[in-house]
Amino acid sequence: METNYYVEFIRDLLSPDEAVRTEASDRVQDFAHLLSGTQARVTGDLIAMLTPHEKSRVALEALLHALSDLDGCGKLEGADLSPLEEISESAIHVEHRDYMESFAPYISGPDDSTAN
């Protein structure tokens, strides 16, 4: 993806305006397949870091959906989704549960399944 467009997208994800953040998250489905490996990893890392701090129920769903879009294109490899663990249980509503369940393997990581 062209750098100028990518930087604009990242700025929109960080916007203080809920509508801008939500729209930026929604755009991921349109260009996920165009992201370089580095852009995809950075996007996944950033979205994962933003989710625990998102106060808007709608914007949180859009962020989780954006991660799902990246995953659907095989673009989540290398992304650190462990910050999703920090989302408070009270912030996870019915529309978020399927996403959280699908990301559980990424959140827990391979080491957790082999722990004694």
Question: In brief, what are we looking at here?
Answer:
The protein has 116 residues and is mainly α. The chain has five helices and no strands.
Question: Could you walk me through the main structural features you see in this protein, from its secondary elements to its overall organization?
Answer:
By secondary structure, the chain is an all-alpha fold. The chain is built from 5 helices and no strands.
Helix content: 55-70%
Main structural class = mainly alpha
As residue ranges, the low-confidence spans are 110-116
Mean of all residue-level pLDDT scores: 88
Largest sheet: none
Strand percentage, roughly? under 5%
**Cα separation of the termini:** 43 Å
List the helices and strands and how they pair.
Elements: H1 3-13, H2 18-31, H3 37-50, H4 57-72, H5 94-113
Helix pairs in contact: 1-2, 2-4, 3-4, 4-5
Question: What are the key terms here?
Answer:
116 residues; mainly alpha; 5 helices
